[in-house]
């Protein structure tokens, strides 16, 4: 046993302190005892032959001395390899894996042991090298990431911090090492069970942060790992891009309506200022006012679409037979043939009104794309694992670009509102699903894929 249980805890093994012959002396004694039968036989022969004292002294004494020398030599040959093994094991215990034992060979008892110890030393050296390389990589990764990382021991004292954590606390690592989480203002973050998004003011900056807390054990004791990500800059950048897209689309739509309204208003003003007025001024005025009314109606539809997108209510879910819902959607489209391949008995927990509206928009877009090539539309619905997959497949020209498909109010169709796809995706995501568009691989056309939880 390399350890002993004492008072309920593991303690290092202590050698037996009782007095007695050690291993080396026992080996020497056994070697000398091995020579006793020979010496007894020699003494019996000398006594039987009636040898005098000179014969005893000249023959028996050298044999005794030779036996003692052979016993000492045998003791050395037995003990010396054990000291070598002890030195090798001590080097391994001290972490020195460069020491190797000689005379390591197969087919020899001691040689086998030395061979295995050398192999163990090489294995441990390779493992330590991999650990050191992994730690070096981990250190570089922690220094490179822009996420504050903190590790606390079982008493919630800081053990590890990376450069991003130093910036967040506005203090150097050597200043905060060993301080309590409460002294660093991180005790509230440690109280989070798993992950949360919070608004907080740290010494290094205030804003919105993603906080993640995990627990690990070292030496049987609980330790805490805390990561804090500053979301403020990312949120501001995403908000800026969203505003840019929205303003670009709003500006495009407003210009499309206001430019002809302004032009027609100027034309009508010039017409009314003429003296005498032209004979057909009533027709020109009626046409101009009609253009102004048409563009005003377009702006009204635009604002109505914006309102519908911005005020979508949360879904009221209930169990719905998907085949019946898709059958109603299919019958609403009459411009192109719509086929379906829907398994019976598929039920989903959805808001039927909202999901039907989303699917109507997808089928409508598919039909408009298929009309130009006199194609058709097909609807497929299957259950895969824990999701229901609905595909609306058209036979149109396909997608030329997908970067602006889900930008609100962006449209490539004359008279389009640009909210159909956006509204459909918003409805699907409100149900915990996803919507994506991709081109067909078997022929021209597009596939709108809706994935919902089963």
From TrEMBL:
Annotated GO MF terms: protein histidine kinase activity
Chain ranges of the Histidine kinase domain: 249-454
Alphabetic keyword roster: Kinase, Membrane, Phosphoprotein, Transferase, Transmembrane, Transmembrane helix
Listed name of the protein: histidine kinase
Chain ranges passing through the membrane: 27-48, 54-74, 134-152
Subcellular location: Membrane
GO annotations of cellular component type: membrane
EC number: 2.7.13.3
Primary enzyme class: transferase
Database matches in SMART domains: HATPase_c
Domain (HAMP) ranges: 76-129
One Pfam family here: HATPase_c
GO process terms (BP): signal transduction
Catalytic function, reaction form: ATP + protein L-histidine = ADP + protein N-phospho-L-histidine
